[in-house]
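Open question from group meeting: does this chain pack into something compact, or does most of it stay loose? Before anyone orders reagents, we agreed to write out a predicted structure and look at it together. Recording both the input and the output here so the notebook holds the full record.
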Amino acid sequence: MVKEKIQMVDLKGQYRKIKEEVNQSIQEVLDTAWFIGGPKVKAFQEHLASYLDVGHVIPCANGTDALQIAMMALDLQEGDEVIVPTFTYVATAEVIGLLNLKPVMVDVDPNTFNITADILEAAITPRTKAVVPVHLFGQSSDMAPIMEVANKHGIYVVEDNAQAIGSYYTLPDGSRQRAGTIGHIGCTSFFPSKNLGCYGDGGAMYSNDDDLAQRLRMIANHGQRKKYHHSMIGCNSRLDALQAAVLDIKLKYLDQYSAARQQVAAHYDQAFASVDALQTPTRQANATHVFHQYTLKVKDGRRDQLKAFLLEKGIPSMIYYPIPLYRQDAFKEYVDEGFELPVTERLCQQVISLPIHTEMDEDLMQFISHSVREFFQ
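Structure tokens returned:
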């Protein structure tokens, strides 16, 4: 029997299990009073680079800053086009508009929810300079063909890896790389609810390109390589030491967290396999899924009724995302009147995400899955 209030993500329960380690790590920052930069940030940066097997990790203040700094590092010019899926969080396209670039919004695959190489190639024009594949809900886009198209047309690839940190992508030669490390720059967020989340805001960029990494690092630090010597216009975007102290502890458990989420997803899959009105998440053969979200498609038009039914039972759910980016007032100038992408339109009416986190026990999984099945009986 479920007694506690059900959460989409149980951060309190997760903290309780690592409380002593986290508290000690935070206390070390307080004792040294080294709140900006310092050994904790350096240690986390090195440990994350090792985990991802990537040449450079550049921490920053949040995931949106990571995307913005990545775009700044590419030295794009006003009006240059950046291809971005429209079925994503606003930050992905927001930073493109903020820098006076043009977000070119494209549809996604109806099953993986990610951009594909075919979609990318169809949208490329002479003004296209970059693409942002978003590894939505915890699974990498199919990166090998995307990189092939990008290389053919000479465009940059900036991976939005905010939801898929820890997942693997298998390349055609059989080798594996972590999501976010395949393109020119990878960006991630450490927002508390993310699979690797801190206790405030935080983010990071990563790259195997030495020159790009140097530019990213400089831009995040006021455009300077040496103090008081500013080579370019930058910004002030730092991961503070208290957040690095938390993240460095949680990084040790990230693979365990991913496995716990995968176990919940497997339970849901089995529970809903016989429900004709539901489509469970698609797994690519060449990518692992770390389930930042477990997102169903409700095919019979009753998504909103299901959400209301679950809420009556005390079960939260979320709709990621209810409105295509091109229908948001902020982006109307970038699309023609009547512009519409059919897959995104359908997904915004069909998707619903169920609770999934590292602390779910069998009783909670059974209660949620039974309640969903009850609605469709």
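Observations to bring back to the group:
Residues 326 and 332 are 6 Å apart (CA to CA).
Residues 11-32 form the longest helix (22 residues).
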